[in-house]
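User:
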Amino acid sequence: MTLRLFLLFCFIVSIARATAHASEPADTSWSPPKPPARSQRIDDREKMVRNQIADPAGLRDAVMDPAVLRAMRDTPRHIFVPSSHRGRAYDDTPLPIGHGQTISQPYMVAVMTELLGLTHESKVLEIGTGSGYQAAVLAALTPHVYSIEIIEPLAERAGLVFEEQAYTSIRTRVGDGYYGWPEAAPFDAIIVTCAAGHLPAPLWEQLKPGGRIVIPIGGTYSVQRLVIVEKTPDGKRKSNSVMGVRFVPMTGRAQESHDD
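Assistant: Predicted structure:
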């Protein structure tokens, strides 16, 4: 084959390959949920993100991650709040959701979410489904969300909201979060939305090397600290205290060991 014919052959092959790629179906990568209620109270969420999270007053550190800010804008917090408190859904405060539990302050949800460092590929475990709001925010960042709630009526209510608002990727179960979700482990990140006296050993065991746990540590009547616990690639523990917080206590096995 002469050089001219060889070059012509290569040109034809390259054109054929380009045509084949052009005819392939478009990328069908994951996209965040689109809850119907996100069309409601848009201005309230914009104001919440702007004034409480992205540019907060006082000594608070701003949340900077654009993906987290977008998740906070897109997640309709009011739909996770009991009807008697929906008028205050975007206030800068936690709110009661029954059974002695609360939906966390929006700023705290955003901070803890940012600290997890999630990507679309991250598998994340939440301990304490509660209202379901934190899990919904996580679901705006990754389709791999697992959430455990020990109080069955809260789990049922959150499950109904997930179904109504098309959060189909969130996996839930009723159980004691102290023991984690071993069948789904290991996890890239674990978030604990209730305060424990110590880091539960099963959660540490279910964390991937290179992963991190964000957890409030401390008792109900003592100082609580929001802590990041990282597992180094060689399996060692590295902890960093972020700020003082106040969360409802983890119940079940964690409470029993604290009482002991």
